Amino acid sequence: MLALRPNCECCDRDLPADSADARICTFECTFCADCAETRLGGACPNCGGNFSVRPIRPAHLLERHPASTERVTKPHKACAA
Which pTM was predicted? Predict the structure, then answer.
């Protein structure tokens, strides 16, 4: 099951579980659409894979299967700008 991380790994922008702006790679690295497209050029800085729009978990299932609250940020060269 997807962790639905709460923030962009690059700029630390909040990405709630219902955000249409969240992008993930195959390893669930999570970025906002702006960072994924402009700063990172569509490639994950961790694995080199592409990004997909993160699915939105229906609200009625979030109570039983909540989104992660663990914030992840990493020092990527493209994010330092």
Answer: 0.91
- For residue 42, report the phi and psi dihedrals to the nearest 5 degrees: 85, 5
Element (H, E) at 31: strand 30-32
Which residue in 15, 14, 30, 26 sits closest to 74, CA to CA? 30
CATH for 1-66, among 2.60.120, 3.30.200, 3.30.40, 2.60.40? Answer: 3.30.40
Phi, psi of 35, rounded to the nearest 5 degrees = -65, -45
Q: What is the pLDDT of residues 23-32, one digit of tens each?
A: 999 999 999 9
Q: Which residue has the tokens 């894979």?
A: 49
Dihedral sign for Cα atoms in the order 50, 28, 57, 73: negative
